[in-house]
Amino acid sequence: MHEGKIIKYYREKAGLTQSQLGEGICSDTHISKIERGLTDYSPEITRLLSQRLGIDIPQELCRAIQIKQRLLRWQETIVMHQMNEMDEIHHELKHMTLLRISDYKMMYQLLLARYELMRNNPDSAYRIMKELQKLQSTLPPYENNLLKHVWGLYYLSKQDYVQAISTLNQITELDYPNPEYFYHLAVAYHMVQSQIMCYYYAEKSLKYFKEMNYFLRGIDAEMLMLIQLKDEENLEFRDSIERFHNLLQSCDMCHAPDRKAKVLHNLAYEYYRRKEYESASRYYQQSMELKNKLTGPYLLSLEGYIRSSLEGNLIPREDLSPLISDGLSIATKLKESLYIVLFNLLKHFIQDEEEAYHEYLQHKALPMYRQQGYTYLVIRSEKELFSYYVNRNQLAQALEIAACLITPK
């Protein structure tokens, strides 16, 4: 950013030609060279041009320098999930008119797309990224990789974990000194049940978060690493539970109820998979109490709570039916296809509609799980269908499912 760009911007904003701006001061040729940064000029010319344009050039230069500083701080608040300051800087940047002519306008657009994702506005982010995609070949290396990072986050928001992994793996680490993306790779690998890759990238992100003193993000990474150890023979359950409770204490110390809700949910799952349904139900409920009811994370904990209660015979079915209807209503309102499927399955199950349940599971739920890469749900569903067909002596269908079970995911 330099004086010439500022002069050109305000000249065009004022609707003046180069000749009109330079009249009585200098030639239009000289104005052209000033705007393109091709000539030196005296402070007196700068003063006269500023006066005619009604601006203060030193003040405008100061504002231009602040653009880069504010963008870098905005990126940092996004990485740290400091939502209040993130919103404040967003509002501030919206009113920085010089962003339109700065060298950082692409950076701003990329961070704006990420901001929209943080604010659960994926459609707005998508529109920004589609426009930037047209310019990808001209983007500098950092911005090019940032675009891939934001696309990866978009696919994560759409629960397309296979595409998220593919996109994030295209990032060139040497050209993109932002190791935060390792965490997002870890999340995507976790969702497709790739435990080794998840642990590997979560550990890399944890190192970065510790170096930067991003304590809350460190909690995220540590939790992700911990839940990958569920099948580790040398890790006793009580040790795992102790580490979960240490994370809960860290959340309380950092006053982070949103993180605490995630830790509680994963702790509940640890109990659920060990068939300790009473503890699982209790922790799922505690997690739900800390979440916004009109969100996917709330629905995930609600689904876990209902399953724990059903399988542990903790609550009568007639008392769970309203919860299922409530969950399905919220999922439909949010247009969350995964949770619509999960709560429809629970609805069939609780009404003892065995045939309808398995029909829905095979022809509606399972294809969606496979398409979107929900490996855990794919495996669980295939096992459930295999047992169902074997018990009904439908061997052809059982063999078809068995072939899927023995095929590497």
UniProtKB/TrEMBL annotation:
Location of the HTH cro/C1-type domain: 7-61
Per UniProt, the keywords (alphabetical) are: TPR repeat
Q: Where are the TPR repeats?
A: 261-294
Can the keyword Cytoplasm be found in this entry's annotation? no
Q: Does the keyword Ribonucleoprotein apply?
A: no
One Pfam family, short name: HTH_3
Signal peptide annotation: none
Q: What is this protein called?
A: Helix-turn-helix domain-containing protein
